[in-house]
């Protein structure tokens, strides 16, 4: 692990703040410049989560040796496929890649080879893996992180935001180089490569069948008629949010949906007496909210939602002891193995082996517990080769020992 060093503030990009590229001519110049550069390409993206509907990119930052730094406005330049082609075959360096890859792919930038500095930090056992902390711990430089939650759909973008954005990629390749060496020295480089490839090739999650069930506070809603109100208000809010390009919570907070479901207001006056409906955006759509509540009230019983929908996996672990005590013992034994391996290899348990894989393996174990059957099952559940090599045998041994005791 890198020894402690004096921390210096990183206040300005080396070549200054580059202009924001927002037209085809400017993009063509960036494509030529980055195609002629050398070495890995540092990439970051800024979104407007919590402000706009969806998670599209509103700024893309890149840096490469010999190319300098570029700031690209994907609103003005919505197709970055030419840039993608110019650096094809080059390693792309990202921090917390799973957050940025979807919005980068939306604009045609699709890395084929990647290094994720956050994921590398996890595998190496760093306790805190945010970009600012990693840069400070590993490189001895302090990044200001004051604008990470800003509304990046703002135009024009303030100069201090652009400075922050440029600095996010300023030393990302240098951070990558140190972590690459640490991975090599610790024998974890191939593990990291498997993890990076898994992130790159993981398909986007399928849309949820009932996304309205994730409304915060829905656990308070007990009757199916009230659940129907949640569903109809959520659906109405989602339509309005999409059409207005606003984050759904800015149109109507979840608390308003749940309170309306519990109180069942029948008039606009009753709606306005719910404090969460007093926001400007919520007041603008009072008729829509009342229509949604009325629709839920008028549904026949056959069209009311069920209290819950069965999942495709095991129940929550806190219910295992009652539902299947033997499975609960298997889960505890497997978790103990993973915890011991995580401590031995200095990384979080969730990185050593995915918790969902542990749950599914122990809820429905192979008919015969052997190294081979556990290996096969973990592979089916998406565990990486390095994870299986570490965990399959000790987990199989622990589960087999439990079976022997029960016999």
Automatic annotation (TrEMBL):
Region feature (Disordered): 296-323
Pfam families cross-referenced by the UniProt entry: DNA_pol_A_exo1 (PF01612), DNA_pol_A_exoN (PF18305), HRDC (PF00570)
TM region(s), chain numbering: none
InterPro entries tied to this protein: 3'-5'_exonuclease_dom, Exo_C, HRDC-like_sf, HRDC_dom, HRDC_dom_sf, RNase_D-like, RNaseH-like_sf, RNaseH_sf
PROSITE patterns assigned: HRDC
Ranges for domain HRDC: 223-303
Top-rank taxon, per record: Bacteria
Name this protein carries in UniProt: Ribonuclease D
Protein's organism: Nonomuraea rosea
């Amino acid at each position: 692990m890198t020894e402690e060093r004096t921390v210096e503030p990183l206040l300005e990009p080396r070549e200054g703040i580059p202009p924001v590229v927002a037209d085809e001519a400017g993009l063509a110049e960036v494509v030529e410049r980055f195609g002629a550069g050398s070495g890995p390409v540092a990439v970051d993206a800024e979104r407007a989560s919590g402000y706009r509907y969806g998670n599209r990119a509103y700024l893309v930052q890149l840096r490469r040796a010999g190319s300098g730094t570029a700031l690209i406005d994907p609103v003005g330049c919505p197709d970055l496929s030419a840039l993608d082609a110019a650096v094809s075959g080059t390693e792309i360096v990202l921090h917390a890649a799973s957050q940025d890859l979807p919005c980068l792919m939306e604009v045609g930038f699709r890395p084929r080879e990647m290094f994720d500095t956050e994921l590398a930090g996890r595998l190496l056992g760093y306790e805190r893996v945010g970009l600012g902390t990693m840069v400070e711990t590993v490189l001895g430089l302090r990044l200001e992180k004051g604008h990470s939650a800003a509304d990046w759909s703002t135009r024009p973008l303030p100069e201090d935001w652009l400075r922050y954005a440029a600095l996010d990629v300023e030393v990302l390749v240098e951070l990558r180089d140190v972590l690459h060496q640490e991975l090599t020295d610790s024998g974890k480089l191939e593990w990291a490569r498997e993890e990076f490839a898994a992130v790159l090739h993981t398909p986007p999650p399928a849309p949820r069948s009932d996304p309205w069930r994730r409304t915060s506070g829905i656990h308070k809603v007990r009757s199916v008629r009230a659940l129907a109100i949640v569903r109809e208000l959520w659906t109405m809010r989602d339509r309005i949010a999409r059409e207005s390009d606003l984050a759904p919570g800015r149109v109507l907070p979840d608390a308003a949906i749940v309170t309306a479901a519990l109180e069942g207001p029948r008039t606009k006056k009753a709606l306005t007496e719910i404090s969460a409906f007093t926001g400007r955006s919520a007041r603008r759509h009072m008729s829509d909210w009342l229509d949604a509540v009325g629709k839920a009230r008028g549904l026949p019983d056959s069209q009311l939602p069920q209290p819950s929908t069965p999942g495709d996996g095991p129940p929550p672990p806190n219910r295992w002891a009652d539902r299947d005590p033997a499975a609960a013992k298997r889960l505890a034994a497997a978790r103990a193995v993973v915890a011991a391996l995580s401590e031995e290899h200095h990384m979080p348990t969730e990185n050593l082996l995915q918790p969902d894989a542990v749950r599914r393996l122990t809820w429905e174990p192979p008919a015969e517990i052997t190294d081979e059957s556990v290996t096969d099952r973990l592979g089916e559940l998406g565990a990486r080769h390095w994870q299986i090599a570490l965990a399959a045998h000790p987990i199989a041994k622990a589960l087999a020992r439990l079976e022997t005791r029960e016999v």
